[in-house]
Amino acid sequence: METAPRIGLVGSEGSYGRWLRRFFEQRMGLRVLGRDPAGDTALSERELIESVDVLVFCAPIRQTPSVIRHYVEQAAGIERGQLWLDITSTKAAPVAAMLNSQAEVVGLHPMSAAPKSATLRGRAMVVCEARVDTWRPWLERFLAAAEADCVRADAEQHDRVMALVQGMVHATHMAQGAVLRELAPEVGGLEGIRPFSSVGYELDVAVTRRILAGNPAIYQDIQFENPYVAPMLERLAVHLDTLRDLVRRGDDDARDQLREQLLDRSRQYAGKASVAEGSYAFERLGYLLADLREPRFINVFLPLDKPGSLRALLSVFEQRNINLDSIHSSRSAEGELLFRIGVSRAGDASALQDAMKAIEAEGIGRVVEASGLAA
Ligand SMILES: NC(=O)C1=CN([C@@H]2O[C@H](COP(=O)(O)OP(=O)(O)OC[C@H]3O[C@@H](n4cnc5c(N)ncnc54)[C@H](O)[C@@H]3O)[C@@H](O)[C@H]2O)C=CC1
Ligand SMILES: O=C(O)C(=O)Cc1ccc(O)cc1
């Protein structure tokens, strides 16, 4: 086991490759080398393997098993004593390919896109320990530094779970995107529908758009490369077909069947407590969305290392007799921590302008955005 191992990234120019380089260099103080056909080709595959102690595969899902097989061939035994990792969204095929090497092997799957933050704090990460021996102490240090909520699983269990957690969620939302594309134009288009939004619609549209905004190869490969996705889609289609047939029939028996097959049985399966918990989670998201929709707000970046800065911020409003509707801590699109202060619509606009000036002038924070505050 190396105390300061050199890290090799296969796929170093990709979105996770670039994040991992920063993480290993800046958070763990390690030397990082890489290879990527898209612009990081100084080292051959063999030279990269020879130069590192830990090799991390962060290449596209579909290519990764064959990329790993190629590295196993190129390594031809010199990988003995190394640790090989991957972060692919499927686990069985990449882990099996890595196990054909002589290296110690751990499959990882962070359950989030490469974050804007320096660590994976607050996000889940699946850890498939396939062959770990002398690297265990370093692995533990690495996982602690990553700050993710780690969940251990074997590769097959991971893929079965992901058919539900990712495959099903992506499939239903990609289908929603297609249905909206086909049917929304008849009723005013997406913008025409917007004022009619329910909380559920708003949340689903956000998920759909997140998928559409992402790397299409990932969503494609998650459907095609996980063998448990096709049987899941089969079940999904059965239930949607059933629902359509029942609605077409339209009689009382069909209504009873919908209730029994798609509501009562699933409610019983989930259990009273988790249904109540999920329903409350939805309600809270509804309140949050309502607050975020309020047009009058000030977004303030507060320096994190100053105790009492939130109190100072609030006193600016108190001194000017301004009522606050809501306070949320959130992040800017760039990942910067900020407080979003929703202000009462009844308030005096000039008092608000004055408050904003005071926040900056008194060095309390920086107003990064303000809306609806014109006099
Ligand atoms: N982006 C995300 O949201 C998440 C991605 N992952 C996993 O991370 C891995 C990488 O994803 P991203 O960084 O988002 O993809 P990406 O497409 O941004 O990066 C992949 C990189 O691999 C390179 N590459 C292709 N063939 C290669 C080869 N033979 N040798 C070396 N490099 C090669 C590409 O040129 C590209 O730069 C995937 O396996 C994905 O499943 C996991 C969790 C989340
Ligand atoms: O967009 C997000 O935040 C995601 O959740 C994306 C994502 C894509 C692929 C993964 O394997 C894990 C997460």
TrEMBL record:
<dbReference type="InterPro" id="IPR045865">
    <property type="entry name" value="ACT-like_dom_sf"/>
</dbReference>
<keyword id="KW-0057">Aromatic amino acid biosynthesis</keyword>
<dbReference type="InterPro" id="IPR008927">
    <property type="entry name" value="6-PGluconate_DH-like_C_sf"/>
</dbReference>
<dbReference type="InterPro" id="IPR046825">
    <property type="entry name" value="PDH_C"/>
</dbReference>
<dbReference type="Pfam" id="PF20463">
    <property type="entry name" value="PDH_C"/>
</dbReference>
<dbReference type="InterPro" id="IPR050812">
    <property type="entry name" value="Preph/Arog_dehydrog"/>
</dbReference>
<keyword id="KW-0827">Tyrosine biosynthesis</keyword>
<protein>
    <recommendedName>
        <fullName>Prephenate dehydrogenase</fullName>
        <ecNumber>1.3.1.12</ecNumber>
    </recommendedName>
</protein>
<dbReference type="InterPro" id="IPR036291">
    <property type="entry name" value="NAD(P)-bd_dom_sf"/>
</dbReference>
<dbReference type="Pfam" id="PF02153">
    <property type="entry name" value="PDH_N"/>
</dbReference>
<keyword id="KW-0560">Oxidoreductase</keyword>
<comment type="pathway">
    <text>Amino-acid biosynthesis; L-tyrosine biosynthesis; (4-hydroxyphenyl)pyruvate from prephenate (NAD(+) route): step 1/1.</text>
</comment>
<feature type="domain" description="Prephenate/arogenate dehydrogenase">
    <location>
        <begin position="5"/>
        <end position="277"/>
    </location>
</feature>
<keyword id="KW-0028">Amino-acid biosynthesis</keyword>
<dbReference type="InterPro" id="IPR003099">
    <property type="entry name" value="Prephen_DH"/>
</dbReference>
<dbReference type="Pfam" id="PF01842">
    <property type="entry name" value="ACT"/>
</dbReference>
<dbReference type="InterPro" id="IPR002912">
    <property type="entry name" value="ACT_dom"/>
</dbReference>
<keyword id="KW-0520">NAD</keyword>
<feature type="domain" description="ACT">
    <location>
        <begin position="298"/>
        <end position="375"/>
    </location>
</feature>
<dbReference type="InterPro" id="IPR046826">
    <property type="entry name" value="PDH_N"/>
</dbReference>
